[in-house]
Amino acid sequence: MTRQADKPFLYVVVCAAGVAEEVSKLITAAQERNWDVGVIATPLGLGFIDAVAIEAQTGYPIRSAWRSPGDPRPFPDPDAVAVAPATFNTINKWAAGIADTLALGTLCEASGLGVPIAVLPRVSDGLAAHPAYEESVARLSRMGVLFGDRHEGGADGFGWERALDLLATRGGHGAGRVRP
Ligand SMILES: Cc1cc2nc3c(=O)[nH]c(=O)nc-3n(C[C@H](O)[C@H](O)[C@H](O)COP(=O)(O)O)c2cc1C
To answer: Atom 21 in ligand 1: which residue has the minimum CA distance?
Structure first.
């Protein structure tokens, strides 16, 4: 698909949680709000989504690994990022500054550049009780990252559009540039 230059570009970062199988709901909602959308999945997140369907829906290849140095960049710079679902693992690694997946490297850089980022955590009560979780959310929040309520249940009621509502509070379109 040709880049829709008149539309802002949203990165949807998808982690390895069960609700990821319904991420098409977020993509549809974002497109209805005039976002052009590209998906970055964590390596394990790839196993939770229907890559063929999502690539057809977005018009872009799903990214999960870094490109080779000489290859063109598959996505334009993001105007905003939605992390949904966000796992315990990715939230903690992001807060710690670990960038060992394309998703994490993109998040670490985008938050550093001031690109608006909204996060919908899908983290169980047990994992959320680990002290690292609260500290990570607090650290990322201080960096300006926007958090929706933590979701603990199944796919019902995940509230995908909350990510877009949070981004709208930041004017929706980013100030920063990243070049993953
Ligand atoms: C079926 C299944 C469902 C999972 N659901 C969640 C979840 O909702 N939240 C979570 O934090 N981890 C969940 N996990 C564990 C993560 O997949 C695991 O921590 C993984 O390392 C996360 O990788 P990522 O953060 O790079 O996507 C689930 C694992 C499986 C196999």
So the answer is: 89
Query: What tens digit of pLDDT does each residue of 76-112 get?
Result: 999 999 999 999 999 999 999 999 999 999 999 998 8
| pTM of the predicted structure, to 2 decimals | 0.94
Going from the N-terminus, what domains does the chain have, and what CATH number goes with each? 9-67+79-168 (3.40.50.1950)
C-alpha–C-alpha distance, residues 102 and 118, integer Å: 18
Q: Is the CB of 64 under 6 A from ligand 1?
A: no
Residue whose CA lies nearest to ligand 1 atom number 6 = 17
Bridge partners of 12, per DSSP, are 39, 82
Residue 51 has pLDDT above 50, yes or no: yes
